[in-house]
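Researcher: Please predict.
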Amino acid sequence: MEYIILTTNFCSGKTAVVNTTQETHSLMIGYLLWLFGFTGSHRFYYGRPISGTLYFFTFGLLLIGWLIDLFLIPGMDRTADLRFEPGPFNYDVAWILLTFLGLFGIHRMYLGKWISGIVYLLTGALLGIGYIYDYWTLNEQLSLVNRQPAH
């Protein structure tokens, strides 16, 4: 999906057009995670850990918020694409690895974090605490490693 962003420098009054074509998050993955949205998984995926946690503990705000999110996902997807840094590490791959193999640290190994990945593997993601931590921070971790220059 292509986005056109207009920015204005208030000091000089000049407007610039920034055109970005790189997506960081997939609308399809967002909707797949929405199927389990009463757990907040789609909100975590789109970088909204506070509301994701709220959904987790309230069963998607008693399923009402979950149904409303069916219509809000395209906007969350656009916001995430603009907010997070694209690069060599794919957000979708990392999120799938975290969701299904997070207790084994496979997502951390994918990001090149071998030591913590092995620690997760040997400790069940530090008895699950690391798994929850990564649900809160995976998007920021990906943006950070995607900003680093390739070796």
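Model: Residues 1-9 have pLDDT under 50 and may be disordered.
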